[in-house]
Protein 1
Amino acid sequence: MRRFVVIGRLATASADFSLTNLPASSGRLDVLLRCLRAALLVSHGLRRDTIVYLVLLGGPDAPRTVRVDGPTARFVRPDERSLALMVRTALGKPLEGPGFTTIRNGIAVAAGGLDAVLADLGSGARYLLDEEAPDLRGLALDAPDPVFFLGDHLGFDEATRDTLRRIGATPVGVGPVSVHADDAIVLVANELDRREASRPG
Ligand SMILES: C[S@@+](CC[C@H](N)C(=O)[O-])C[C@H]1O[C@@H](n2cnc3c(N)ncnc32)[C@H](O)[C@@H]1O
């Protein structure tokens, strides 16, 4: 299983944003929704081997994390408005205590941020996507169940970097140019796809 964790420093954890003015009303949740699309959706389908965590650190209800599970998610559409509606509906439901509450097939929400994600992750190599880091093409990337952490349009704050350092996340880059987080996800997924396709057996 592949996992992508996107940290939205201002992205709203409440359901009170406007679908017609998403960037301005949601703390740039649109950035995270594009990451969700990039990680989970392929032409004519969903990646069943991928789980995405959107960590929402903005607004009075923060922190909250929305988890979308590729193996079980259904009716996930690629357009930003549909994804926004899906997340807004999930954020509007009551949560049932610690950990992730399943809202519907493949969609779960937790009342927590990076801490909730770390508690939910199983074993597996951790990678921190960082512009300054060595290129991931130089890495074996063959450990099962890799987890990739990304920043939003503002990048990581220092506390998040410290936590990721503490858990031993390996910094990796996807090339010499700082790209949008969703594009960084596509580059990682493509690299993993190529490695898997060329592996014998
Ligand atoms: C738009 S970038 C953040 C830019 C922000 N101004 C900063 O300085 O961190 C969003 C995220 O995408 C990932 N990213 C972008 N370009 C990358 C690259 N060349 N290598 C690795 N990660 C990258 C990083 O996780 C970054 O936090």
Protein 2
Amino acid sequence: MTRRQDWVPGIIDTSAPSGARTYDYLLGGSHNFVADRVMAEQVERAVPGIRAAARINRAFLARAVRFMTARGVRQFLDIGSGIPTLGNVHEIAQQEDPACRVVYVDHDPIAVAHSELMLGGDDRTAVVEADMRDPDAVLGHRLTRARLDFDEPIGLLFLLVLHWVPDDADPAALVARYRAAMPAGSLLAITHMTDDLQGEKIDAVEGIVRRSRGAAQVFPRTRDEIAALFGDWEPVAPGLVPTGTWRPDGTGDTAADTADPEMDELSFAGVAPRP
Ligand SMILES: C[S@@+](CC[C@H](N)C(=O)[O-])C[C@H]1O[C@@H](n2cnc3c(N)ncnc32)[C@H](O)[C@@H]1O
């Protein structure tokens, strides 16, 4: 019998894979279980470069946060923030300015528990356990209100999370609810899985997730569908592009640095200012 680790909240069903923990495993983290590793390994057999794609997304996160701080943003709302790993939003933002404040939001109890452990009693950061499909719960949460000033610009991040929202839950309307709450000077960053460029590989990933015992399914989208998530917020140059090609500025930013250049093409990324 496996002993339950002390960082595992009692309510977790560790026999079904979760997106948060599978992604953690692909990034080399240790907050995952056999079911997560089995799914990750199936995905890796279908798409051997998938770990590079996960790292490229994290590298984009760092560039997007630095881009936002350079534009004067000092507070961030990171939706679907995941299990803490190398280069979390508050670490990158606070390297630019230690006064930066961050609210992390996730519905996965392990991501939340571990984020709380990492953040300790830091009064510049907070973790909200909520389903992002309930914007009122996220935006109205006492911790969101305590950490973020809705009269100052906010960096709103939806990184590799909106493809968990089915079409019938209307992801464009959902993001519009969040955009509407953002003050002047705010910026929105999105990365989203796409089947436009590497359809076969993405179909394989989608099938593996669908056949798993995990509760959630992935919904890859076309570039036009992802562009619609920005509404009338116009992405800055180079626009909505394969994730690694969004303003790369160092080794590891783009798949060209990896064994599998196609790994740039599993998702699109963009950053847009509030008009
Ligand atoms: C692939 S991870 C991405 C983590 C991080 N944003 C990044 O880009 O590195 C997706 C995260 O979104 C979370 N998530 C999925 N659906 C969600 C929902 N409806 N509400 C809140 N979080 C959600 C998952 O639990 C997971 O932690």
